[in-house]
Amino acid sequence: MTAALAHPDPGSPSDQTTHHTVRAGDAGSGLSRWHRQEILPWFGTDAQRRLRGSHAAVVGCGALGGAQVDLLARAGVGRITLIDRDVVEWTNLQRQSLYVEDDARRGVTKVAAAAARVRAIDSSIAVRECAADLVPENALECIGDADVIVDGLDGFETRYILNDVAVSRGVPYVHCGVVAARGTTMPVMSGARSGGAAGDGAAGGPCLRCVFDEPPAAGAEPTCDTAGVFGPAVAVMAGLAAANAIRLLAGLRDQVDMALVSVDLAGGAHGAGGATGAGMGAAGAGAAPIFMRMSLEGARREDCVCCGARRFEWLMGTRTSDTTALCGRNAVQVKPARAAGSARDAAAGTAGVGADCSGLHSLDALAARLRELGDVRVEAGVLHAMPRGEKSRAGYPIELAVFADGRTIVRGTSDIDEARRIHARLVGS
Ligand SMILES: [Zn+2]
Predict the structure, then answer these.
(1) How far apart are CA 263 and CA 350, in angstroms?
(2) How far is the CA of 265 from the centre of ligand 1 (A)?
(3) 321 with 334: CB under 8 angstroms?
(4) 197 CA to middle of ligand 1, Å?
(5) DSSP 8-state symbol, 246
(6) Which residues of the chain have pLDDT under 50?
(7) What pLDDT shows up at residue 67?
(8) How far is the CA of 214 from the centre of ligand 1 (A)?
(9) Reduced to 3 states, what is the DSSP secondary structure of residue 268?
């Protein structure tokens, strides 16, 4: 192994014709580092070569994104763009497998720590770091010329921006999400462009909005901060999503599973309601995993706003959060997109799965979740929460005031980005 480490694979992403013959990773055996993948009868050396010439953009480098980055890097993807807004924290180490104690101690950005890890796995991978919150203004620049967009996010809004980028640019997007012990994944190949490393030109299938027209109302769904995350559920979902991403990048589009797949590793034993306690199962059911697979055949909707009408509302910024600092109050008002959404959506009741169709907060459900984190009271239609130990970077304790119309005032900070992060973590985006 020492000899192999001293002579890393000299193949570079620009050297796409010779890299698959390079001897690396197993000095003396004469085998390429991807040998075990190349001998899979449905993969082979041609797919390996295409994979090496491809570019994946991973948005969100926490547990889910990090596990996918690891799989993509080891599989042989030649270029990887890492996009994340956070730094590594101690509570990440339970499940975010790219990071180690030293990263948390130093508080480095996740993209820097992930990039170092990718280079340690394979020094010839071209890594691009984007330490930013992906928003409409920077989305196209962050994604660049990626052949596949990989979802490692924990908030809903950004996924709708990615869906718009994917459909408008004709780039496949592999959606994935995990909360508590359950997760969901689906590939979006609606309008995917011809040629390139990722495709054979066959467009089709639904986009995210064909299946989930609207994100759930802010506060309607549990977040990782309130409901927790079970590491093995992340590994399962990351594996399913990366399997599709690798096939797309390797030009094996006909092998992509065109289905919405959901997995719940808590099964009937604990339910999936997280801190709300909802979904308690029958006694004696054990933690039997529940797998669900729904074919996406025929799921594309002609009347879809995104892939049907080709109106990219989220990428245009007309649907994203409206966040404003409240002058002189050390507070920021966050107005989620759902609250700012169109009357048509509210009238049609076209909320996403699990959402409150009125578009308003269910303050009682949110209160139940936030009670796990600190003092909560609901008075005159306003939920007041003081999460224990939650402080702004300036050192002020954080207080939330959540209104039934979807607005939240985050007190203790005047920093808009910080307020958005706190809102996304505790209330949900
Ligand atoms: Zn659509």
Answers:
(1) 24
(2) 29
(3) yes
(4) 23
(5) H
(6) 1-25, 194-202, 271-282, 339-359
(7) 98
(8) 11
(9) helix
In angstroms, rounded to a whole number, what is the distance separating the alpha carbons of residues 110 and 84? 7
For 41-73, the three-class secondary structure string (H helix, E strand, C coil) is: CCCHHHHHHHHHCCEEEEECCCHHHHHHHHHHH
**Contact between residue 424 and residue 155 where contact means Cβ atoms under 8 Å apart:** yes
- Give CA–CA dist 149/72, Å, rounded: 12
Q: Under a CB-based contact definition with an 8 Å cutoff, are residues 345 and 336 in contact?
A: no
| CA trace torsion 283, 288, 294, 295 (10° rounding) | -160
pLDDT at 118: 98
Question: Residue 149, SS3?
Answer: strand
DSSP state of 229: B
Dihedral sign of CA atoms 275, 278, 281, 283 in order: positive
- In the sheet where 259-264 sits, what is the strand order? 126-130, 79-83, 55-59, 148-151, 173-179, 182-188, 259-264, 290-295
Domains of the chain: 2-295 (3.40.50.720), 321-426 (3.30.310)
CA–centroid distance, residue 258 to ligand 1 (Å): 14
Contact 426, 223 (CB under 8 A): yes
pTM for the predicted model, two decimal places: 0.74
Residues with CB under 5 A from ligand 1 (ion): 207, 209-210, 304, 306-307
The contacts of residue 263 (CB under 8 Å, 6+ apart) are 182, 183, 184, 233, 236, 237, 240, 289, 290, 291, 292
Structure tokens given for 275: 């801190």
